[in-house]
Amino acid sequence: MLDKISKWDESLFLFLNGFHSDFWDPIMFLLTKTQPWIPMYIFLSYLIIKAYGKQSWWVFMAAGLTILFADQIASGLMKPYFERLRPCHEPFLEGLVHNYGYCGGGKFGFASSHASNSFGVATLMVLALFFKYPAVKWLFPWAVFFSYTRIYLGVHYPGDILMGAFIGILSAMVAFFGMKKIRDLILKNRKKPQQQPT
Which regions span the lipid bilayer (predicted)? Predict the structure, then answer.
């Protein structure tokens, strides 16, 4: 069964990776990096501050924990454990993979940290901001596009992306609701009446 799933994954990868052109190659290579999206992250930070004011600290801590969990689970735990070669490193796919720029940050690609981080950010922002800014749901299409650049560039299979997305969504939920619980406990303790000394 796992072999059949792997074959489907490889076939879907070759299909999606085949949509490339000399025009889009450098654009996709640029957009797969973090730097072009920094203005978006700054804007999201502004929305958090505007929505939460002095209580923004716990949302920013949840964001930091989301990235920490998502990145460490995908890159620190799963990649060295499963040791699944990236498509651009796979000998039997040599000559079939369109790889532009470089072949990822290491030999192994399961699961995608790009996908885990982007879906983590999207999930956390929707959990934190949807009540006031419903338009933040557009971050999910962004996460899909950001993740697809990895397939386009030949460094991840679709299965790497799907598992990365799952890790990112789960990491964001754990971080958000965990930090929300901590915030509620802190606020509850602050509201307790101080006992007068006898």
Answer: 27-49, 56-77, 114-131, 138-155, 161-179
Assigned domain for 194 exists:
no
Residue 178 placed within a domain: yes
Q: What is the DSSP string of the chain?
A: -HHHHHHHHHHHHHHHHT---TTHHHHHHHHTSSGGGHHHHHHHHHHHHHHHGGGGHHHHHHHHHHHHHHHIIIIIIIHHHH-PBPGGG-GGGTTT----S---SSSB-SS-HHHHHHHHHHHHHHHHHTTT-GGGGGHHHHHHHHHHHHHHTTS--HHHHHHHHHHHHHHHHHHHHHHHHHHHHHHHHHHSPPPPP-
Can you tell me which residue has the tokens 């983590």? 120
CA distance 182 to 49: 19
165 preceded by a cis bond (ω within 30 of 0)? no
Phi, psi of 138 (to 5 degrees): -65, -10
Report pTM.
0.93
Burial bucket for residue 3 (CB in 10 Å: 0-12, 13-18, 19+): exposed
Q: How confident is the model at residue 180 (pLDDT cuts 50, 70, 90)?
A: very high
